[in-house]
Automatic annotation (TrEMBL):
Entry keyword set: Membrane, Transmembrane, Transmembrane helix
Lineage, opening ranks: Eukaryota, Viridiplantae, Streptophyta, Embryophyta, Tracheophyta
Species annotation: Castanea mollissima (Chinese chestnut)
PANTHER family: 60S RIBOSOMAL L18A-LIKE PROTEIN, RIBOSOMAL PROTEIN L18AE FAMILY
Membrane-spanning parts: 41-59, 79-103
Keyword DNA-binding: no
Identification of the protein by name: 60S ribosomal protein L18a-like protein
């Protein structure tokens, strides 16, 4: 054990506290800081705001395909949910467009 690192409560209050990392798992303390966007992460925040502005789903899908989650693996689920939401939105827009086109062609034959 490294004697330079202290886990004593008194040292922690004095600001002399240092995190002890596990040799076998160096990522152990890597994700201790909270996620951005009020702690829920960019992915989930974009999913919620995408209900008001669906373009955010496409932005988060772009981040997902650019592997933004490699910076913080906790972002992966939220970004993947945005990819699914963007796919569903795209399919719904295409179906609505086809239905409107068919209705217009049926009521206004040229």
């Amino acid at each position: 054990m490294d004697q330079r690192l202290s886990t004593d409560v008194v040292d922690h209050k004095n600001g002399a506290y240092a995190q002890i990392k596990d040799v076998e798992s160096p990522e152990l303390g890597m994700f201790d800081k909270p996620l951005p966007c009020f702690g829920c992460g960019i992915g989930w925040f974009s999913l919620l705001l995408g209900l008001a502005c669906p373009l955010l789903w496409y932005y988060a899908t772009f981040l997902y395909f650019r592997k933004y989650y490699q910076r913080d693996p906790r972002e992966r689920d939220g970004l993947a949910a945005n990819a699914v939401a963007a796919l569903i939105c795209t399919i719904a827009v295409i179906i609505a467009g086809v239905v409107i086109l068919i209705i217009n062609l049926a009521t206004n034959p040229h």
